[in-house]
Amino acid sequence: MSEEVTYADIKFQDSGQTKDAPKFDNLERKATPAPSHVWRQTALALTLLCLLLLIGLGVLGSMFYITSKAEMEKSNKLQSIKEELERNVSLQLVSNMNISKKIMNLSTTMQEIATKLCYELYRRQTEHKCKPCPEKWKWHENNCFGLLDEQLTWQESEKLCSAENASLLKIKNQSILEFVKSQYLYGYWLGLSPRKDPTHYENLDETIISANWYIRNTDDLNNKIWCGYIEKPYIYYGYCTSRKKPICEKLANPVKIEDALMI
Question: Which single residue of 35, 65, 96, 153 has CA 20 to 30 Å from 138?
Fold first, then answer.
């Protein structure tokens, strides 16, 4: 009888322990969720951080937009100012060019007036200081003519004219022809090409378009070469080594306006 009680107690105790075992398991399982509170705080902090970052990005984006807009406005203003300056400069350049043209036209007109005035003064006083030719040279239109008194060979005459930055006279237009005829020249070498065959004489009026006015090689002139010289209305040919007077011509210098106006 005692053995049965003991067995029953043991079974009861075992069954009691087995009934209480799930309770301990449930307690252990219920105790494990405690860390979820920490994760919630962490998630909340991360969410707030993300919001702050988004807000910061929004603020930075707004600031960038505002700054970009302001810079764009400044750039547009600067571009407008630049274009305005370019227009003003262009207009100023055009104005300056027009002024320069007017000044040039005025200068040309004054030069023409001074030249005419000087020529009138020259007709009254041959060696007037406004004359654009060397002393004792004659002035006709745009040319100066030097009638020299030395008796020289044709080649010496050519060298003498060259030393004066001039050349022996060439009659190649009607105006120079009329001037030469008015001087009644006698025995002056001309800038005609030397020739091997002499010509008795030529009428001065018929030589204007002659190709003989273009001087060819004159390095070797001897007693068998003939050169042209003027005697009144005719041109004659004589030995280039004979001696006659040279007549030189060169372009006249521009008339100095102040010399023409200071009478």
Answer: 153
